[in-house]
Amino acid sequence: MTDSPRQIALITGGSRGIGRATALRLARLGMLVIVGYHANKAAAEETVAALQGEGHVACRISIEDADSIAQARDLVAGQFGRLDVLVNSGGRTKPVPLNDLDGLDDALFDSIVQVNLRGPFSVIRAFRSLMEKSGDAVIVNVSSIAAKTGVGSNLAYCAAKGGLDTLTTGLAKVLGPTIRVFSVSPAGVDTDFVAGRSRAQLEAMADKTPLRKVTSPEDVALAIEGAITHLTSSTGIALIVDEGRHL
Predict the structure, then answer these.
(1) Which of these, 13, 32, 121, 126, is most buried using a 10 Å CB contact count?
(2) CA distances from 15 to 22, 43, 85 (A)
(3) Are 87 and 227 spatial neighbours (Cβ–Cβ below 8 Å)?
(4) Residue 7 DSSP label
(5) Using CA atoms, how far apart are residues 170 and 120, in angstroms rounded to an integer?
(6) Residue 13: inside a domain, yes or no?
(7) What residue stretch is flagged as signal peptide (predicted)?
(8) Do 223 and 52 contact (CB within 8 A), yes or no?
(9) Is residue 246 part of a domain?
(10) Where does residue 9 fall: left (phi above 0), alpha (psi -120 to 50 degrees), or beta otherwise?
(11) Strand order, beta sheet including 179-186
């Protein structure tokens, strides 16, 4: 076990999009970053290689699989003995028009909720004891403005993110004072997370917002960094990163 003076950060879904941008920022802060990935080990290892500093590792953590989560926890416990930062960035969705209730069948609904709501909770539950050893740990759940607007890739995704925000509030009460808990809620982010969504569609949505620009993964990562490093007297809140789209 390594007794590292550096903060130890685990990012689920850390090899792409918001997760990757967050990994880059946290590494620049001097943290040792564990890049969690579901299936694409090569992408995770490429992200690790791009991080500033040494000691970063890739770790498979499939957030819908209890055994995978337990194995990741055991790896972190064995190598580092604690966890200071957990960013739940892993997720999955499938575009279904909001009025197509039949297209959102039970199997798809359950899958979306399992990954986007139960998954983060399962990871938090597994890593709780390691985070309590930190004494000043932070959890950031990547949510979505869809939790508030009811408009997103599908209704199950909106509902799951609404549940994630409620979970954030409840966990903040349960896990304090040693662990702060946040949600960060973006709108349309310039990633490939939603299949088939084009840059032109993102720009059209952005033109209807007060700030009139497309949110980048780096914009969301900056909010995550701020929650970890600056909001030391806050917990249980959602930080909205959507160019004012919710207004």
Answers:
(1) 13
(2) 10, 6, 17
(3) no
(4) P
(5) 14
(6) yes
(7) none
(8) no
(9) no
(10) beta
(11) 57-60, 32-37, 8-12, 85-88, 137-142, 179-186, 237-241
Read off the tokens for 65.
Answer: 């699989």
DSSP β-ladder status, 32-37 and 8-12 = parallel
Q: Which domain holds residue 25?
A: 8-240
* Count of positions (residues) in the chain: 247
Q: Give the other-Cβ count within 10 Å of 229's Cβ.
A: 14
3-class secondary-structure state, position 186: strand
**pLDDT (tens digit, 9 = 90+) per residue, 13-51?**
999 999 999 999 999 999 999 999 999 999 999 999 999
- CB distance 57 to 35 below 8 Å: yes
pTM value?
A: 0.95
Catalytic residue ranges: 157
Here the tokens at position 68 are 């995978």
Q: How far apart are CA 128 and CA 139, in angstroms?
A: 10
DSSP for residue 214: P
Establish if 84 belongs to a structural domain.
Answer: yes
Q: Give the C-alpha separation, 229 to 154, whole Å.
A: 33
Tokens of 71: 């194995």
Per-residue pLDDT reduced to its tens digit, 173-194: 999 999 999 999 999 898 888 8
What is the number of domains present in the chain? Answer: 1
- By the 10 Å C-beta count (0-12 exposed, 13-18 middle, 19+ buried), 214 is classed as buried
Kindly state the tokens that stand for 109: 């609904």
Residue 97: asked if its preceding bond is cis (omega within 30°), the reply is no
Is residue 2 in a domain?
no
